[in-house]
Amino acid sequence: MTARRPEAGEMERLLPSDPSVIGGHRLAGRLGAGGMGVVYLARSPHGAWCALKVIRAEYADDPGFRARFRREAELAARLTGRWTVPVVAADAEAPSPWLATAYVPGPSLAEAVALHGPWPEAQLRGLGTALAEALEGVHAAGLVHRDVKPANVLLAVDGPRLIDFGIARAVGATALTTDGTVVGSPGYLSPEQARGHTVGPPSDVFSLGCVLAHTATGRPAFGTGGAAAVLYRTVREEPDLDGVPEGLDGIVRRCLAKEPERRPSTRELRDALGEFAVEGWLPEGLPALVAVRAARVLDLPVPDPTVIAGPSPVDAPPSPVRRRLLVAGAALGVTAAAGAGAWWRWGRPGGAAGTGSARRSRQVVALLGSPDDPFFADHERGARLAVEQHGEDARRAFDLVLRTADDGGTAAGSAKAAARLAADPDVSVVIAAGGNTTVPAAVPPCTTARLTVLITRADTDDLNAVNTTTALVLRATRTIGPHAVLRYLNRAVQPARTVVVHDLATEVESLATVRITTVHGKLDSETAVEEVAADEDFTGAARRIAARPADAVLFAGVRPDRAAACARALRDAGHRGARVAGEHVLDGPFLTDGEGWRIGTSYTDASADSRTKAFAGAFRARHGRAPGPWAAEAYDAVRFAAHGLASVGDDGRSALRSELLRRPWQGITRLVSFDATSQYFQVGDDSGGFLFQVTGGAARFVCRSDDIARKR
């Protein structure tokens, strides 16, 4: 399990529902939380500080997972080198298994580089030598770490420590999990990991080379952005080593060789980098930071008992005390302040509370977007219906209030509105209903205030780093490709070849789709790429494609006018194969020229989708019209937020995101689930999207992606 380490040395306080003691270890605070559990700072029975990792009960109930956790503890206990963190206690048989390791109070290497910049050559050599020695011990134990990255290197006054062996495996194990997901962190994993091949010690050497390059330059060797783009560059392109000291350039390049056999061994690395010397091993400024962190922990008092003194915070049902916290009196409620200003609007009176609201607390859901956005009205109506239905449930533990905040349709307006929401302690969660221009600007102020943001529609690459924020994207994005049309091609069409048309007029936006379908093999057919320059029409490409008229075509672009031009050119050239694209082309001229095209979307047609008919009927009865795009998704976003708020009590604002990451949640539109490590939205059979067809100048719903039948 990889849990988020708090930024800048932050330690979060214990929640009222957290235990006081686990396995004789007295808990002092939370170091991080992820979808699979919590990591606490704890004091051992002997008085030593340690990091105690606890697995949530729903994972521990899986015998296979419990066996893997037991194995992780056993493997980690075999590592005794001075640059790895020792396991001090573990209990794989507890209701919620736990593992305690010695606590290193220093910052991570990632944080140190972010705060103080690149390292000089002398300190880089010491860092590389110590980490190479750590990996030598790992490999001697018959293991491969598989997740060597700056965030997994902690800095102590006497040297670095390599941590987190949660995905370590025996030498020769595959780099894929059982569901085919690549294991590791994009930007630091090796080409063989990126391809899902078997990995060995050279894979860790490659990752160490990435760590040294990042530390030397202050930036990842294979750039930033979506996972697909970074993996592609790792496999196909040379690293960016501009800024690596000349004396280290050669050895770092050898570490980053694409072929494992060309990389140095850890012994060769140590010989090339020299001996480690404790004196002066940290660059200027960092010894003080390490000392401050150590002093902060040493000065901690003996922790006060929390509400529960049981075995685990994550496997117990809500206690009566926790329940009482959820239904605290009206003094904790929200009142309508006249001075709030016109930048947002309250929900209709009675839309949330119903009778008896004085006995319940209120949770405020803010819908952030622009009334001028063509999709906003349906967002608001769908969200309001969810709030009103929540208020009709006599069993509810709290009332919901819906506010709408106007972002003005601009990035600056979005940032300003989000800052106001973040400054209002009554707001429990923000639903960002805007598009790719406005939503990214709303995330930073909410992150600073630890205010959870749920993103329904936007899918720009600028949101690929939300796993380091308080935001959660509730949809499949173009980083993983248009899932419904990929499934349509693989299951229903099954062409011999698919031509991916890369529209360079939107090169940045289109690149993720090109990479996911070619480099990462999400299409079962043979693939070819046709690049069309921004100042070209599609005539030449269409003629070449039509030479094999049965080939399928996937348009990798986002502009409706360019998609329309491509559609006209293919039609005029006599192409007869399947033609598909993503949701962004569904506008203007394409609806006229794209007759017969299949389009993958992340929103449903609630009136045509059999699984949303009840919602559509209620929507029509409430608002006097059929729901449009994103109405059902906004309805689900409110219900998803309410589901999380019901479990976090009065710590809702700070704890909501962690609670929402805990387990999958089934809405009317999709299963909402997040990867435990990356915290990205997980795309599966029941969460991948929807298929439409352009017919008669409109997009008509066909089916959900999981209902696409395999060709017989």
UniProtKB/TrEMBL annotation:
CDD domains: STKc_PknB_like. Residues 25-282 form the Protein kinase domain. ATP binds at K53. Signal peptide: none annotated. Coiled coil: none annotated. It comes from the Bacteria. The keyword ATP-binding applies. Keywords: ATP-binding, Kinase, Nucleotide-binding, Signal, Transferase. The keyword Protein biosynthesis does not apply. InterPro entries: Kinase-like_dom_sf, Leu-bd, Peripla_BP_I, Prot_kinase_dom, Protein_kinase_ATP_BS, Ser/Thr_kinase_AS. PANTHER family: MITOGEN-ACTIVATED PROTEIN KINASE KINASE KINASE 20-RELATED (PTHR43289), SERINE_THREONINE-PROTEIN KINASE YBDM-RELATED (PTHR43289:SF34). This is ABC transporter substrate-binding protein. It comes from Streptomyces vulcanius.
